[in-house]
Amino acid sequence: MVQLCVNGARASADGAVVPLSPEAVADSVAEAVAAGATDVHVHPKTPCGRDTLSARVLAATLEAVRARVPASVPVGVTTGAWAEPDPAARVARIRSWTVLPDHASVNWHEPGAEETAAALIERGVGVEAGVWSGTDGAALFLRSPLGPKVLRVLAEVTDTDPATARGSARTLLSDLGPAHGRPVLLHGEDGGAWPVLRLAGRLGLATRIGLEDTLFLPDGGRAVSNAALVAACLGEYASARRDGR
Question: Which ranges of the chain have pLDDT less than 70?
Answer without folding.
Answer: 245
